[in-house]
Amino acid sequence: MAIGPDRRRMYRLVMAALAAGLLAAVIVAVVVGAAGMSPGQTLRALGGLISSGRGARGSFPSWAPGLLLDLRLPRIVLAMVVGAALSTAGTTFQGVFRNPLADPYLLGVSAGAGLGATIAIIWKPLSGLGFYSIPATAFVGAVLAAFLVYRLATFGGHTSGVSLLLSGVAVGSTLTAIMSFFMVATEYDLRTVMVWLMGGLTTATWNKIFMALPAVAIGFIYMMTRARRMNLLLMGEERAQELGVDSQRTRRNLMIAAALTTAAAVAFSGLIGFIGLMVPHIMRLLVGPDHRRLLPACALFGALLLLVADTVARTVIAPAEIPVGIITAATGGPFFLYLLRHRKGI
């Protein structure tokens, strides 16, 4: 897929703008909050934290560095990791299925990961395995959900966009219902369950980041190594096979990679929808369909978008919070309807 000089220039400008926007969003997310500190105090506390506490005595509350290190910074980093994971997974699903509506949430992959995590939480033999039980079962659930949707939507070797979408919605709804039933039946706190189902980053910790980041990085690196093959799949399976691509194997492996990143996100953030749907479409308009450039752009924009959404979620009605999944659904729902109405032949 040839890239002209104008497209390369546009790509560099977009990446620079995204990097600058992400940096600005990080600064805003660090500064704003319900802790009662002024922006100046917050920045001085951050400077004191970076310099190992050698800040001006009395220029910020004594508890401020701990607040930033243990609460605000982990949440910011986890928002970026989850946003990048969901957006790159959505990009891969759209490329693999050649369907603009493919997305981890709509395809039921997020619900599969959520059900796996729920089982690990409520089933004592699994919860006794320690910190790794939730990510592991979330990954298994995501992979099984992805293949189940794919098999249900495939007839005679052909997967149509409509059948894929309907299968994903049906499987996702069923898995979410099972997940809710398990939580209620085992007498878990219903409010906590509902907040988790709506998606949130309130429980972010550095340990969770250290668990999620390697999985997201491995999935992203694999997607990048298969970006050229994804480009060929866009031309159709027969054409891709003529050019030496094993389409079935490539599709299967990319589905596993996308499920891995989705599971890493859902295991620690709950169900956050539509990031994987919106981001690839917007970036495709700006940088083109070449996955070698589209995937990095989506990772940056996904991190930026979810960080902004989470900052709004925790500040708009402070000191109370809105689950970030509500924010993404409020913007992603209308975007989804727009795609359904204006895209032909889906």
Question: Care to describe what's here?
Answer:
This protein is mainly α. The chain has one domain (68-342): Orthogonal Bundle (ABC transporter involved in vitamin B12 uptake, BtuC), CATH 1.10.3470. The chain is 75% helix and 1% strand. The chain contains 15 helices and 2 strands. It has helices spanning 5-31, 39-50, 64-97, 109-122, 124-127, 133-153, 161-185, 190-198, 206-225, 227-233, 237-242, 247-269, 275-287, 291-315, 324-342, and strands spanning 154-155, 158-159. Strands 1-2 form a two-stranded antiparallel ribbon. Strand 1 and strand 2 (158-159) form a beta hairpin. The longest helix has 34 residues, at 64-97. The mean pLDDT is 83.
Secondary structure layout plus pairing:
Layout: H1 5-31, H2 39-50, H3 64-97, H4 109-122, H5 124-127, H6 133-153, E1 154-155, E2 158-159, H7 161-185, H8 190-198, H9 206-225, H10 227-233, H11 237-242, H12 247-269, H13 275-287, H14 291-315, H15 324-342
Antiparallel strand pairs: 1-2
Helix pairs in contact: 1-14, 2-3, 3-9, 3-12, 3-13, 3-14, 4-6, 4-7, 4-12, 6-7, 6-12, 7-8, 9-12, 13-14, 14-15
